């Protein structure tokens, strides 16, 4: 799955773009920002595949941020998403992957995603197979057998792994962990959750036609509407 970061200082526009990208089923938004400095630092930490940039921001322009991002060792692709068409030439001179105009259109967003998938090898390459994950435990790094994992989640920007016995912590984004999990028994069911389907004991109806997955330890994992159909199909429902 492709990972994305959004830099937009209008909350409603940012929410709309997050919804359209994640509704495609091909993109996970790993971070959001509204200012240049904080967004730059967050992008360095999350290392997304692509950054969606507004042009006019409170403390500068998306063009300035794009120039700075190109200096990173692993520079992300970037797409400008703006209400102004005046900057298109400058954007493509900076090698922008695409240029989206507000108000956003779902069909146009999907076209952009398909274009990015062709450009970004990581979006289509097979995942690297692993049997263990490095986790932080008592100030040391331990290797955790992935078969013992109930679910992996992001809470307050921190990635956590839940097993029957313990709660562990990771130093990498959820999307990065997802790329490593090749076993078909792991499945994304929510923006903030990946579950090990073999440890699900029940599906519990929730509001707005969604579900909670009941895990072996009794904990409950929410299934967002985007993933309900796929989850039901996996369990033959």
UniProtKB/TrEMBL annotation:
Residue ranges of every copy of the HTH LytTR-type domain listed in the record: 133-237
Coiled coil: none
4-aspartylphosphate PTM positions: 54
Keyword Phosphoprotein on entry: yes
Domain called Response regulatory: residue spans: 3-117
GO MF: DNA binding; phosphorelay response regulator activity
Pfam families linked: LytTR (PF04397), Response_reg (PF00072)
Keyword Thylakoid on entry: no
UniProt keyword annotations, A-Z: Phosphoprotein
PANTHER family the UniProt entry points to: STAGE 0 SPORULATION PROTEIN A HOMOLOG (PTHR37299:SF1), TRANSCRIPTIONAL REGULATOR-RELATED (PTHR37299)
Protein name: Two component transcriptional regulator, LytTR family
Species, as recorded: Terribacillus saccharophilus
């Amino acid at each position: 799955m492709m990972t994305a970061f959004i830099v937009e200082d209008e909350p409603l526009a940012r929410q709309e773009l997050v919804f359209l990208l994640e509704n495609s089923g091909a993109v996970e938004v790993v971070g959001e920002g509204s200012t240049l400095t904080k967004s730059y630092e967050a992008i360095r930490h999350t290392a997304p595949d692509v950054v969606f940039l507004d042009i006019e921001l409170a403390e500068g322009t998306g063009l300035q941020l794009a120039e700075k991002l190109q200096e990173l060792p692993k520079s992300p692709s970037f797409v400008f998403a703006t209400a102004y068409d005046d900057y298109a030439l400058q954007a493509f001179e900076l090698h922008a992957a695409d240029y989206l105009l507000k108000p956003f259109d779902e069909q146009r967003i999907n076209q952009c995603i398909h274009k990015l998938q062709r450009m970004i090898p990581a979006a289509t390459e097979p995942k690297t197979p692993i049997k263990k994950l490095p986790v932080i435990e008592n100030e040391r790094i331990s290797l955790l057998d992935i078969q013992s994992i109930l679910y992996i989640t992001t809470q307050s920007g921190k990635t956590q792994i839940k097993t029957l016995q313990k709660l562990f912590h990771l130093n990498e984004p959820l999307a990065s962990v997802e790329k490593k999990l090749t076993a078909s028994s792991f499945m994304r069911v929510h923006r903030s959750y990946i579950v090990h389907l073999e440890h699900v004991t029940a599906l519990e109806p929730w509001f707005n036609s969604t579900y909670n997955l009941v895990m072996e330890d009794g904990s409950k994992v929410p299934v967002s509407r985007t993933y309900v159909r796929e989850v039901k199909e996996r369990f033959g429902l």
